[in-house]
Amino acid sequence: MSLLLRNLQKAVPIHIGRLTKDINIIRQILGIENYDLAVLCVDNTNIQSLNDKYRNIPRPTDVLAFPAYDDVIPGQLPSIEGDIADLGDIFLGIPYIHNYCQPNEPDRKSVV
Question: Do 12 and 42 meet the contact criterion of CB atoms below 8 Å apart?
């Protein structure tokens, strides 16, 4: 199935090709390459808005994940319903991740 990867932020340059390759390797290792997945790279304003709306935490964060199904059981893949094999959406707060990496000095590419 497909991976939708979009960089919707301009604050921190990222290499979309490398990130796509890395995510696809992880999908293969986890055995989820038959599921659709959206990964959206956003700025602090957008991830803060989502964090506030869905978690009532009005500050930026590194990652927010929204499963496509309501009845998700941790550690189990959802059953494929008809033609729909969707894991959901992952939002990466790229500036937040970048700022975290600065004082702690890990390689941003390996963190993302």
Answer: no
pLDDT of residue 42: 98
Cβ(111)–Cβ(93) under 8 Å?
no
Could you give the C-alpha distances from 66 to 37, 38, 39, 78, 103, in angstroms and in order? 10, 10, 10, 13, 29
**Single pTM value for the model:** 0.86
pLDDT tens track for 100-111: 887 666 565 565
Q: Output b/e per residue, 12-24; b: 16+ Cβ within 10 A.
A: bebeeeebeeebe
Coil/strand/helix, residue 33: coil
Q: What is the number of alpha carbons within 13 Å of residue 18 lying toward its C-beta?
A: 8
Please say whether the beta carbons of 95 and 110 come within 8 A: no
